[in-house]
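Z., the sequence and structure:
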Amino acid sequence: MIFAKENGRTIPKEDKVFALSGRAKEAIAAKGKDAVINATIGALLDDEGELVTMTSVVDTIMSLTPTDYAEYAPIAGTPAFKEAVQKALFGNFKPSGHVRVCATPGGTGSITSVIANYSEVGDFVLTHDWCWANYKNICSQNGRNLATFSFFDDEGNFNAADLEAKVNELAAKQDQIVLMLNTPAHNPTGYSMTLEDWDAVIGILNKASCRFALFIDVAYIDYAGEDDEVREFMPKLEELGDNVLPIFGYSASKTLAAYGMRCGAIVCMTKDEETAEEFKKVVEYSARATWSNCNRAAQVVMGKLYAEPELQKKADDERRGYRNMLLDRGKTFEKVLNDNGAKCVPFDAGFFVTIACDDPAALGAELEKQDIYCVSLAKGIRVSIASISKEKCVKCAEAIAKLLK
């Protein structure tokens, strides 16, 4: 008997990525980890295949009292956590207007919140065609549709023209659009939008005939490059017109390399205090009606790390080392591809590299025969450079390039 209602959703029998990762783990158990390349995992692993943790974070976790992790957290998050999020998110950039913060269960919670509160049932949410597959699932779960624009033009540059065309198309149907941009270190390509890209986006939105909730998914910002450089776009957001509300999706889970603690935030910055207070009201109501409140222990850890300069420096230094390791893997992968006559979608930094191809499923199946496990997307193959060593990045890139030939 079937009791569950699909409610317009198409629900697969299993999650494709987790099923693929499961097969990779079975292969590792049978053949040994040196014989298998598991490039499916969206978490940072060291060169031995062990999950990276930060001693600054672990030591802070171990210092917690029972009250720190057993007591309910406020719906919007503890005051120290909300202060820490602003420090971590904005760095040396200080918004001139009004900022509001609400805790979410990881970056995923912020995506759910912005869709639930700034679009209506049946609306189209707009994002780039290369995107995290869960964007579509979250839209579907909330009775929304996902529309996409071409992220890159034929020369591999940000496709502002197609963004403008899709914005105008949706503006004719909706008085408000949620536009989701994942940058810097975009998942799944690793591309980071340039200042010129941002100038184009701001120009398009400012002259459009509708309102926008501009959602910037910065989940990977702390692994995208030097802290100030990757935040250079933020002051440009203050050039947006009154018809645009900038909203950030922040992932403390990734910043702390503590994915299982499920900690994130949704953050708005606006010139108008009334808009800021409305944001606070709706996202807190939505939080209460879904997850209620978030992991208090993670919030206490975040608050402690960013309240003590020496502790913050220790965490920043640790993360910088891992970030450089990750960037070295990505650039090595890209170079090996190029040297073998292939290329990836424009890559700057982050956890993933993506290679466009005509038949991703077939390419993925051929790689799996060689005990190389990568995720097949609609338009290409995603490789998690975060989860494989530099040596395996070389082997994986060589195998992909050979198959593409």
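The longest helix spans residues 309-339. Residues 149 and 163 are 5 Å apart (CA to CA).

Let me know what you think.
H.
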